[in-house]
Amino acid sequence: MSVLRRFKPLLDRVLVERFAPEIRTKGGIMLPEKSVGKILDATVVAIGPGARTTDGTVVPISVKVGDRVLLPEFGGTKITLEEKDYHLFRDSDILAKYDESS
Questions:
Q1: Among 16, 71, 77, 66, which Cα is nearest to 40's?
Q2: What's the rounded Cα separation, in Å, for the pair 43 and 102?
Q3: Tens digit of pLDDT for each residue in 25-51?
Q4: What does the pLDDT read at residue 76?
Q5: One-letter-per-residue 3-state SS of the chain
């Protein structure tokens, strides 16, 4: 079993994988790394069970595995699993969820 399948975030944490930046323009010109902006889109890879309120009830997470989300430019915790970079965010830090149905 892979490490990623066994990785389970705690509480209201969401593990995401950022999309790879485009390093080539539509015309085929290669872009240097410094000119490529930070990618704010990501795919949800794993979610925790949700945050707990003071009376003990669990508040469910607003995203599910496989959702495409918009992240803040800064924040989150970078972690490396199986030589791939992932980021861990709180559910409340995620800015938006893309609606894939339309």
A1: 71
A2: 18
A3: 677 776 666 655 677 889 999 998 888
A4: 86
A5: CCHHHHCCCCCCEEEEEECCCCCECCCCCECCHHHCCCCCEEEEEEECCCEECCCCCEECCCCCCCCEEECCCCCCEEEEECCEEEEEEEHHHCCEECCCCC
